[in-house]
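Weekend entry, working from home. Most of the wet-lab plans are on hold until the incubator is repaired, so I used the time to fold the two sequences that have been sitting in the queue since the last round of cloning. Logging both here for the record. First:
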Amino acid sequence: EETPIFRPSSSTKVVEDMDEFQESLQTIPKKVNWDGRWLCYYNNFWCPERVLKSTIFFQRNFKAKDSDIILASIPKSGTTWLKSLSFSIINRKKCTTPESPLLITNPHDLVSCMEYDLFLNGENPDLEAFSCPRIFSTHLPYHALPQSILNAKCRIIYICRNPLDQFIRSEE
């Protein structure tokens, strides 16, 4: 029986020590982002406050496999394109072009983001349900990746672009 290539539902574990997390949140430097959302300076980078807890869970609990593929990017730098391309390459022998899940499914639903999807609702999602090679994405910088990724032989694919390409200047 072939393992499905679609994203499985993740099981979550209830966070038992919310007080400790809330206490540490009070001591972390914060600032308001350009869009009005809070950023926290954690582990030498500015992390969106809404994913700080899941980022910590990801860093502490993710167990990388040598066959894993990690797609790393900053937001708005080609993440969707990178997910589509990677998913197509990895799964090209499992389905023909007319049967491709990309025709009806958003790439973000096919390649899960660690801090925005998988670890968002719990510290230990069921990652064993993913078929190998597992493809995951993250917006964390290299130095903030879990030690298991840095120690494993998994592949890290990084995409970046000129930040000025992301801004539109209005003519007055």
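Second, folded right after the first finished:
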Amino acid sequence: MRNKTGTIKVKYEVRELDKVGAVSFVEQHHYSPVMPAITKHYLGFYLDSALVGVLTLGWGTRPRDTFKKMFPGFKDEVNKKTEDGKYIHPISNYYLEIGKMCMTDDMPRNSESQMMSATIRWLKDNHPKCLFLYTMADGIMGKCGYVYQASNFYFGDKYFTDVYLMENGEKLHPRTSKELCKENALFLKEKNDGRWDKLKRPEQVFWLTSDFMQKKGIKRISGYMFRYIYPLNKTAKKYLKPMPNLKEDAGIGKTTFDWFNQSYPKDVDLIWYDITDRKNKKKIPMPDFNLEVENMKYNKNKKVTLEKFF
């Protein structure tokens, strides 16, 4: 059905998928097949019994720390534990984060924003205690979050983050560079580099050094991440108000971000730097990442394939 603006209005049937079906769909339709580490729900979106979209909900690493950074007013509540050390309040009471979202290529314009609306309805029905739906737009990949903007999410802030651009064009997150960091430490040892003498163990190389990257054909790229949030009820929306300097109470804001007065980012706000040589930082166009599944070399242990699942 087409509305007054010319947009085709669709009504999805939303139901939870098994992991196998979700992973298979993501591998076919998402620009990056590397699955999030913590996934709680795999949602399938159906039209006339045909699967046309998948969205995953869960968290990134250290979800409680992520939430406390955004909402320090919840710090004591989120940290509260029982005598045996278990958290009293599940983190799903506070927020769920979008991990992957993708649709088939033949879906009409604005289908993703309608998919987002269906997700919000599903959350309200199935997680009534959850306060927020949270997500990030990956500026390094040229994404500034137009789907979230169209779905009336609030934009909180932007910050720089770094990734490695490998010699084969693959994008590697620093968290998954542990083996390369060990190789980097041995590289320093072989060079008789004074930096090696300061290491107590190879694991103390947390970031690849410039000379090692240049030898391996690796680049360190810096770009923006954009933070978005959607309050799932009126109480949650009150918490988006900035924390006052006075003593807190349950009816006022618990955040340090200015969610209500930020302008949405656009393509013109996207920026990339090559910081392989920290002394010679260079502004560059968007890197040409190679995200084809068959070309994966460094992310192969992170990519959840059907073969690995079985």
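Plan for Monday: verify the second prediction. Residues 1-6, 303-310 have pLDDT under 50 and may be disordered.
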